[in-house]
Amino acid sequence: MTAFLEIDHVDKIFPLPGGSRYVALQNINFEIAQGEFISLIGHSGCGKSTLLNIIAGLDGPTNGGAILNGRQIESPGPDRMVVFQNYSLLPWKTVRENIALAVNTVLKNLPVAERQAIIEENIQMVSLAHAADKLPGELSGGMKQRVAIARALATRPQVLLLDEPFGALDALTRGGLQEQLMRICEESKVTCVMVTHDVDEALLLSDRVVMLTTGPAAEVGQILEVDIPRPRNRMEVVNHPSYYSLRNEMVYFLNQQKRSKKRKAATPAVVASNGLEKINLELGFIPLTDCAPLAIAKEKGFFAKHGLESVTLQRKPNWKSIAHGVATGQLDAGQMVAGMPLSMTLGNSDNAPVPIQASMVLSRNGNAITWSKRLIDQGITDLASFKSYIQRDPDKVHTFAMVHPSSMHNLILRHWFASAGIDPDWDISLATVPPPQMVSNLKAGNIDGYCVGEPWNSRAVQEGIGVVMATDLDLFPGHVEKVLGVREDWAQAYPQTHVALLTALLEACEYCDDRRNRAEVLEILSRPDYVGLPVEMMAPGFLAPFDRGNGTKPEDLYTFHQYFVDRSACPDATQSLWTLAQMARWEITPFPRNWVEVIERVNPTAAYLAAARNLDLPDISLDRKPITLFDGQVFDPNAPIDYLDNLAIKRNVRVAEIRVDEIFSCSVSTPASTPS
Amino acid sequence: MAASTPSSGSLLDSVMRFLPISKKNARKILASLVGTLLCLVAWQAVCSIPGAPLPGPVEVFTDTQELIIGAFDRTDPNSTDVGIFWHLMASLQRVAIGFSVAAIVGVLFGIVIGSNQLVYDAFDPVFQLLRTIPPLAWLPISLAALKNNQSAALFVIFITAVWPVLLNTVTGVQQVPQDYKNVARVLRLGRVEYFLNVLFPATVPYVFTGLRIGVGLSWLAIVAAEMLVGGVGIGFFIWDAYNSSLTSEIILALIFVGLVGLLLDRLVAFVGSISVPPERR
To answer: What pTM did the predictor assign?
Structure first.
């Protein structure tokens, strides 16, 4: 089924004098069902009214579009009537004449008598019979707005668009009008989109509330379902159990956005110059197949092509040293596991928070879970048999390894065990082991299995000591694996360099995903500067069929290493939120109550989109949509706390407001914050 | 100050007892009467200095008593020797003709020019140049072109009044509030319906502003034009009085010119007030 009204990836960009551009709306994407009442809420200047005007057709989007009943909205029309904030009644016409003008223009095919009847009926509907022959100048604000509503509804529109309809009215009048509007909408079954500042008004009237983040580049921050049954009553809705939690959530959202607005205002202006601020960069990476974009950008000259003439790739032994390097400024940027920018931004007991941006996704997928051949040989070939096996002998410790607490390996491995009712902390033991040491530990019997990136799964299979139980494509296809992490203040200090770096890496990602280039990519990776392993060892899953080692025929996994296709490289706010929820689930970090702020801050898209434009690629960011994993569990990006509440296996989830700037400014003032 | 307050209060009370006017208006009228009186006294005082070239108000009144009484005299309709009323009427007639043509032309062209940005860009510089030319500068060229005193005078009235009407109408059309335009766009009003229901009513206040300025300017221009073209008219009357060294008559004529100008302005304002809804004034 197609949606009744679809807001399809709408961007609105205003050109500014001097050639720069102001992005008002970015990638606004949601659907509205017929008869639904939607409120748009956000701080002033976030582009709510612009969005409403785009639906009305009074203003055109720069990219994307609004689609009503399968047809793109290109111009205003009477099927989408607008109720303007300042009423917009024609002052030289009486109430009746104002309504008549609309009815006689829009419904001119109807006989005169019928039109008369419609006009009178609508005057009655808003209880203005006594004032029908008055001029708007003789009416109060509330009465004028009733005329405007009557005028809009008299033409029987499909959609009613309201732009802060009650903003200029006193509280008493507003309350009365809200109830009247609610009754009218319920009777006429008209689809409504309303822009408002008023949290209570939005809750009373709406089925869903779309909350926009603060501009520039306003996006949908969160969509709230208002589950209060209709018909509603203004006095009684407040007694509904979810009223105050919904209200708090909205107020909280707006407060977060107020801080984010302040921060954006304090951000130094981008230096407008064609030259780069810095052309010598130090980038950190870990020798893994998914460091390919970094290696290719260097070896194929993409860095130099985009003006970064002196880029040094520093091969690091483990993730901790990359985190340390980026945090201290030793490295300009680094390859990071998906959760690292989040955990570094939030900080923990060992490390002070450092705001980090995940400015692009370097790779997706590429991991697998490998079990020791010894388990398989005992007939333990799936999670169910493993569960009964550990129950038989509770005292025996089974150790599995992953590479970093905030890496996807850890989160996916834990989720995988938990999906079978195995608690990853109590039933088994998890250890952090650097990727190159996995195979030797497995061989030595120190661990029973691991979750790691390639080539370390294939290596175990090739050596005949391990069996691949599941790949990312089985568990969470398309998950973010490695990102490019930069410090927030670095990105602000070197905006042009940042974009140039992303442009070079994006071009390298495109190169890596072209299968014709993969043999060459493998050859480069096999050099001692990078992964330093023979080509044939790294080929499975990357270029050659992937052998699971369980006797099944090796198969080609085309998206097992995904760098570019499906806008793969774009910062992924929804997945970032999933990662954040998982880290909270396992008590790696607390869950920030101000998650919208944190996610928005860690995953800014402006630099990525600028890089995409440099390469003439579509500058569209990713959609917010629910994530469904292998076990069928759905993660709704609008309600992460509900998701955490409903999990069966989890640690003590702490939900706390985390004011990154305050902690950060405290911690820099104290000299003693030596990273371990 | 403290002493004058009770006395003016009691005076106000007595005025209000006889006239059906509010206290605020009574105060206003009283103030204007006092102001006028002060001016007259000052005038009289200045002109009482021995050797003063101009007559004082008392002298003007006694000198022109006959003229005021005989304002409506017209023994010979073809002669220029008629009462001052008929001179005023002749001037008013010229203004009426010239101004009406200017109003019609100004509003029509103003709407056309205001609704089309290209036409506006094309003609605006020309209009900006032409409107700064003083009315009397048009007289020689119009005499040369029309070869007729009467027509030339009418043309000067027209050309003086047309610019404020035209330019104000243009502004009015351009300033139609975006809200009204949006309403029209949402309803998909046709061109004619848009003109009748939105554009024209929205422009009316601007048109009346233009008309008020226009009528004032044309009254300014007529007096000067008549001095030069001759015939019956208040301008000619003043010039004639000057040539006869009848200073008091000149002063009387000036007072009449001022009064008529004021009346004209108020007349247009009154017509405007009944055509424009109160909240848009």
So the answer is: 0.72
